[in-house]
TrEMBL record:
<keyword id="KW-0863">Zinc-finger</keyword>
<dbReference type="GO" id="GO:0008270">
    <property type="term" value="F:zinc ion binding"/>
</dbReference>
<keyword id="KW-0862">Zinc</keyword>
<feature type="domain" description="C2H2-type">
    <location>
        <begin position="121"/>
        <end position="148"/>
    </location>
</feature>
<feature type="domain" description="C2H2-type">
    <location>
        <begin position="65"/>
        <end position="92"/>
    </location>
</feature>
<dbReference type="GO" id="GO:0003677">
    <property type="term" value="F:DNA binding"/>
</dbReference>
<feature type="domain" description="C2H2-type">
    <location>
        <begin position="37"/>
        <end position="64"/>
    </location>
</feature>
<dbReference type="InterPro" id="IPR013087">
    <property type="entry name" value="Znf_C2H2_type"/>
</dbReference>
<feature type="domain" description="C2H2-type">
    <location>
        <begin position="177"/>
        <end position="204"/>
    </location>
</feature>
<keyword id="KW-0677">Repeat</keyword>
<feature type="domain" description="C2H2-type">
    <location>
        <begin position="149"/>
        <end position="176"/>
    </location>
</feature>
<dbReference type="GO" id="GO:0005634">
    <property type="term" value="C:nucleus"/>
</dbReference>
<feature type="domain" description="C2H2-type">
    <location>
        <begin position="9"/>
        <end position="36"/>
    </location>
</feature>
<feature type="domain" description="C2H2-type">
    <location>
        <begin position="93"/>
        <end position="120"/>
    </location>
</feature>
<dbReference type="Pfam" id="PF00096">
    <property type="entry name" value="zf-C2H2"/>
</dbReference>
<feature type="domain" description="C2H2-type">
    <location>
        <begin position="205"/>
        <end position="232"/>
    </location>
</feature>
<keyword id="KW-0539">Nucleus</keyword>
Amino acid sequence: MDKDSGHKYNCNFCDYETSKVYCLRNHMMDHTGERPFECDLCPASFKQKSKLTVHKRIHTGEKRFKCHLCPYSANQSRNLKIHLLTHTGEKQFKCHLCPYFANEKGSLKTHLMTHSGEKPFKCHLCLYSAVVNGNLKRHLLIHSGVKPFKCDLCLYSTNRNESLKIHLLTHTGEKPFKCHLCPYSANQHGHLKSHLLTHTDKKLFKCHLCPYSTNRNGHLKRHLLTHTGEKPFKCHL
C-alpha cells in the first residue's frame, strides 16, 4: 500500500496530482481510454474490478440493497441511499435557471448541461455525443449490434435493460404511471410527464429560429424540419 509521505504524483497530460500511485494510475486511464476489466456478457468495460462486479448484477438481476420502507431494491448501495431521499422528500440541489431540483449533486450537474448544450462524451464512430458517459456506452452498443437483454416471452431483444422492462409491460398490459387529473395511464414515466404538460399552459420546448413553442420535444423536432426543408420520411413505392 502506498504511504502518504507528502510526495505528489503528477499527471503528464493535465494538472491532476495525488499522493497515491494507484489514484494516478486510475486517472491516467481517463486519458488513455484503457478499461482492463471487461464484461463477458456485453461490451461494457471498466477501470476498476469493483465497478465490473457491480455491473454484472445488471445481468444476474441481483439487488441485495433493500429499502426498509417499501419494496424497492437496488444493485448498488449508492442507489438505495438516493432512493431513501424519496421517502424524506429531501432535494437539496436546486437549479438556478429553472424549477428543477435534485437529491444528488451529480444529477444537478448533469441537468445544467441541458441548459448549456454541453455534451462532453463523444462517439468515435459517428457524430453522436452525450451529456453522461452512461448514455454514450449504451449508444456504442448500437454500433456493435450486441443486444444482451432478451425477452423470455418473444423474440424481442435490446441493448438496454430499461427498454426490456418497458417491453415486458406490452405482454402484461400494465400501465403503472397514472395521471392524477384524468384517466390517462402509460407504461413509461416519460410518456406520463409529456402528458401532464397537456394539463398546463407550459410550453417548455422553444424554437430558436422563430416564436414557436410546444409542450413536447418531439413536436419541436418536427417543427425544426420546416426551417431546414428536410423531408426524411420517404415512400419506398
